[in-house]
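Explain this fold:

***
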Amino acid sequence: MPDLVEPCLAQLQSKPPVGDDWSFEVKWDGYRLAVHIERGRVRIITRGGHDWTTRFPTIAHDARELGLDSAILDGEAVVLDERGASDFGALQRALGGRGGKRFASEARLYAFDLLYLNGHDLRSLPQADRRDMLADALASQPHGSIGMSEDIDADGAAFLKLACEMGLEGIIAKRRSAPYRSGRGGEWLKIKCVQSEGFAIIGYEPSRAALGGIGRLLLGAMKDGALVYVGGVGTGFTASSGGALRKQMAKLVTDKPAATGTGRRKEAVWIKPELVAEVDFRAWTDDGKLRHASFKGLREGEDAADVFEMTGR
């Protein structure tokens, strides 16, 4: 049984694929986790390889109660809002934010793949077969924190339209006949209603009038191995979240921007690019800047999601 499996990642695509070989699921907005079960011991491993077992005690307990000799479940930990939709901000609050010591006891895991089961590596099997085995493995679950991410039998375009009308982030398409491959191989696709990506915070513009004293966060994305400035975000903060973020940034102040293309900004406070902001946005401008951006929260510093990489801009 492998100690760590690099996850299969979904490629971003503008439209759902067409054909009988594609299945569709809701795109959950939380933390990608691999749950390793081996002879009664459970480890919950993040996408970046960190052990967060103690931060998800309910999921760890319920995984142990599945009664499996050995297994690796692939899924997303989420906290649901009153509509039953995943709420990334609520999950962040449950975890106490960056470096927080709180635990997400109210989180649930939506499992969507099974990579290993009772001594057998399943990654070479078709996705459809792995899902059937996952459903069997979860069938006798005595508790409620681990569930199956439902496979929706629907036309992709119609399902995306419904997901967007319901205010969800988007959908995931998976090729039923494909094995499990680490990285972005195209077997999984993500189609979003609103684009949401991780951007490095390279500085901010202070404001006495704004919530938390932050007028705008200044953001960077990766391009050709270096950070480039992609604009800012000035909405999505509360007085509490803005104030907490301002305190974190105060510890990272530096004398020059970590990204190119910032131009002259006399009011900017530059910081080391150690914080990754999850940002919703509608589109890009012709010169590579974010349009209609809104701050969602911070990715955990010790396990930050990939900073968005610009291609073809």
Notes: The chain has five helices and 18 strands.
